Amino acid sequence: MSQSRLRRLPQWQALQQHAASIGETHLRELFAADPQRGETFIAEDVGLYLDYSKQRVDADTLRLLRELAAACGLPQHTEAMFRGERINRTEDRAVLHVALRAPAGERIELDGHDVVADVHEVLERMAAFAEQVRGGSWLGHTGKRIRNVVSIGIGGSDLGPVMAYEALRDYSDRDMTFRFVSNVDGTDFVEAVHGLDAAETLFIVCSKTFTTLETLSNAQAARAWCIRALADEKAVAKHFVAVSTNAGEVAKFGIDTSHMFGFWDWVGGRYSMESAIGLSTMLAIGPDRFAEMLAGFHAMDVHFRHTPYERNLPVLMGLLGVWNNNFLDAASVAVLPYEQYLKRFPAYLQQLTMESNGKRVTLDGAAVDYATGPIYWGEPGTNGQHSFYQLIHQGTRIVPCDFIGFGQGLNPLGQQHDLLIANLLAQGEALAFGKTADEVRAEGTAEALVAHRTFEGNRPSSTILAHKLTPHVLGALIALYEHSVFVQGVIWGIDSFDQWGVELGKQLAKTTIAELTAKDEPVLAHDSSTNRLIRRYRQLRDAAAAGKP
Ligand code: G6Q
Question: What is the pLDDT of residue 510?
């Protein structure tokens, strides 16, 4: 097979040669050669400070990466996205999440139509609704005010809202309860409504297509639960709103489309949390703070579009990711927020990064001959330190880490915030510099244990700091990752905005469900494993229903 266009690029080959020389250079040597790199390998804007000096790069690496970006047409692709060109080629769609956070009055045209005006029209309706609910003037069917909000959605229609609610909980109305239902496993719904009074509960059904099995099943369950509790079909009118692009299906479900908040096909699911999909976020924190979050997103959009690549945060993060992935063979990235409110941030990023860049063919349909999207994972610090950090320090794989920390915690408790950040900083330092055998011996360690207690170091990480977790900072942080994913997708020449693997999942279960629910033993035509598993499941289920062990 001939090499791909990307690998044939002189800029790619120059990086390969460069990697052969610098690849094994220890961070200890890099710091020794350039003691100031901690002050120069940084970039700062939009309230975010990025230190990438503990990445295994030098000034040449960065220059070569920027040259690669130019050779891959990053500036042109970026402009194409901001201008609303149909860069999601396999779905023939524009990719305009940047329009969701554009300020009122700015124009972004799609086929001659200004979409920013549409965005602000929906934002205003959302704000009016949020004020009614939060202010207590939106009454439930029996006249009680709404105190509980249950958002139903999955994937892109859930992970963003859950993450944002958790992240901004400190800013939320503590007199209201927010819960989220995504899984088709009935437990998710039953636990979410446990203890709630239906008369005070509002359901937001979030689904771009309004055809997703999990969401519609849960929405039906919610409808039945509400009608049963309030003993009136008409209760649906005051207890259900929808967020969707599909008015027809919303109406079919029985939600009045005047209670529907729309968005558009140019918003990808995983890029939709600041559209009406974020209605639960707005209900929790209020329209003003929601606007602050949008402003944070927008500030990062402006930074990304206009800042030279040397200082461009998403470009730097994206290119460093390419370097680690393709030239240092790191197959995963750990995201480690030292901020408990960001506990769902790694899960959110998993979808953003892996659904976007988990692709094996280029835009032209040619198989790639290089690694694309790495595996993202993580947990808040310090918890992870007591479990998987062991592998990051001493395992056989390189796991580049993104440490995220804040100058101020939102819940000051004695010295605990300093303790938290001391841990973050110490981890990055230990990963980079390790501990040599001689240092271990000097501590008086028995010879038999020296190898075990030695840390080779040279494990790359970046550290992102901000003053504190505010709605604005959260918006900027998310946009930082969004655009760094975009940068990588452009380098790899893939469509970062489709998700055929997810679509497959939506199809696959359809045949099997009929076989599981058939009254008589179905004729099965799968492989022998699947056939037998289907039969075994039917037996287990029927035995359990009959009360047999
Ligand atoms: C996101 C994906 C996927 C999607 C869900 C829910 O980018 O497309 O996660 O968001 O499958 O889809 P609906 O919003 O259409 O229910």
Answer: 82
210 CA → ligand 1 middle, Å: 10
The residue whose CA is least distant from atom 11 of ligand 1 is: 155
Residue from 194, 234, 306, 386 carrying the catalytic annotation: 386
User: Which pLDDT band, with edges at 50, 70 and 90, does 539 fall under?
Assistant: very high
Residue 361: beta bridge partners?
367
274 as an active site residue: the answer is: no
Mean of pLDDT values over 118-125: 98
Which of 292, 355, 379, 515 is the catalytic position?
A: 355
Tens-place pLDDT, residues 228-245? 999 999 999 999 999 999
Confidence of residue 409 (pLDDT cuts 50, 70, 90): very high
What is the per-residue DSSP string for 417-462? HHHHHHHHHHHHHHHHH-B-HHHHHHTT--HHHHTTT-B-----EE
Dump pLDDT digits (tens) for 162-175: 999 999 999 999 99
Ligand 1: atom nearest CA of 271 is: 7
CA distance 240 to 231: 15
- Pocket flag, ligand 1, residue 84 (CB < 6 Å): no
Q: Is 155 in the pocket of ligand 1 (CB under 6 A)?
A: yes
pLDDT at 1: 61
Q: Does 488 sit in the ligand 1 pocket, CB within 6 Å? A: no
- Any atom of ligand 1 within 6 Å of the Cβ of 151: no
Q: What angle do CA 340, 341, 346 make, to 5 degrees?
A: 85
CA angle (401 as vertex; 397, 404 as ends), nearest 5:
165
Substitution candidate for ligand 1 out of 90, 93, 154 with most atoms within 8 A of CB: 154
CA of 502 to the centre of ligand 1 (A): 8
- Name the nearest CA neighbour of 226 among 254, 184, 185, 259: 254
Find out whether the beta carbon of 268 lies less than 6 Å from any atom of ligand 1: yes
Query: How many other C-beta atoms lie within 10 A of the C-beta of residue 446?
Result: 9
Question: Which token pair is 135?
Answer: 């202010």
Q: Is the pLDDT assigned to residue 389 strictly greater than 80?
A: yes
Residues 6+ away with beta carbon under 8 Å from 50: 42, 43, 44, 313, 316, 317, 462, 463, 464
H helix intervals, 307-415: 313-322, 345-350, 356-357, 389-394
